[in-house]
Amino acid sequence: MTRTYDAIVIGGGPSGATTAGLLAKAGHDVLVLEKEQFPRYHIGESLIPGLNTVIDELGVRDAVDAAGFTRKAGISLLWGAEGKLWSIAFGESGPYDYTWQVKRADFDLILLEHARKLGAMVVEHASVREVLTSDGRATGVTYTVGRGTEPIRAEARYIVDASGQAKILGREFGLVEMHDDLKNLAVWTYYQGGRRLPDELSGNILVENHPDGWLWVIPLSDGTQSVGFVGPNDQIAEDTRPNLELLESKIATSREAKQLLRDATQVAGCRTAKDWSYTCSRFYGPGYLMVGDAAAFIDPLFSTGVTLAMKGASSAAATISAMLHEPAREDEFAQAYDEGLRDFLGTVLSFVRFFYDASKDVEAYWAKAKDLIDPIGRMTARDDFIIMVSGLNAELAVMQPHHDAAPDGVAEGRLATSRNMGMPWAHVETVKR
């Protein structure tokens, strides 16, 4: 017998777990189909405060804090014409003093288990075989579980593609558009020991410009450090050295990264991934929405991936909930979701492209942030930069398309006041712990 749900979510990563959790919290019947068994490895360990709003919306902050992740109070950069190491603290501007450096296997499991607790039905080892349509509208899926060969049919009023870079619906409908100027490749591994940045900077990510690209060093709570290099795909592809040898050569020719890794020991294999940026030409269609990497992937320079996924998921949950309650306004709500997410992604993408030119003065990066998110000058340029790299520009309305139309339990309005801005921040709880 075919079961019908309010929503079927394809994928149980941060975007899928968040969408499902918020919908279930609002009383909707949700099925999550995750192809892997959690916990599972994933890159993307450095978070930014833009997702803290959604952590609070889900009600999962205590579980995240209890996991003991490294608290990340800011970002340290060796970037710009001056050639100096400089840092920003999130608490300088905005409602949050910290976010986290996480092991994604643990963090993603917390989110998925929380979605279960909120009432979502989560099936792991579930592979979607077909997206069902009727008169051009997505109406359900067929899937198999584990090694099973007999497909299971499930139907829903809405399908959410949270399949990550598999981009199930984006590929199905030919919506994926690549950003050819951001075709990069990442090479990374893990080291035990070494050093951290001093004092209040000790939990920061280090982002260091390199003549061939850039390096990251992320301190994790178990004493390991995630260390990687990102450079143009074509350039790395032409390098015939083994991946580890290539990475070690970039570290050896760095300034700050090699100091942090002095006396550190490599404790894991070397991994690679294509960091090819792309955006789908639309994020919705009849009967479906796309969230997270299924909708778009933006270069990881500012660690925006999980925030884009969870902020988009919060908006997607509000959208679907509103459409379920007012089906006559489906097109209006779906278009508002698309426009809000696209505006936010466009702002991030514009800033990343500008920032990749490491020959500019630091103040030029601050000024660019002001141009993008604060053209009337309500904050200082440095504050604008902090808001931008914190992912908190999403709170400035563009990612809140119709939250008032959603019922209680989805995207509840919360007010906080940033101590530096002196004005309300929608959907944020001030947390200074």
From TrEMBL:
Pfam families: Trp_halogenase. InterPro entries: FAD/NAD-bd_sf, Flavin-dep_Halogenase_NPB, Flavin_halogenase. Belongs to the flavin-dependent halogenase family. Bacterial tryptophan halogenase subfamily. This is FAD-binding protein. It comes from Streptomyces lomondensis.
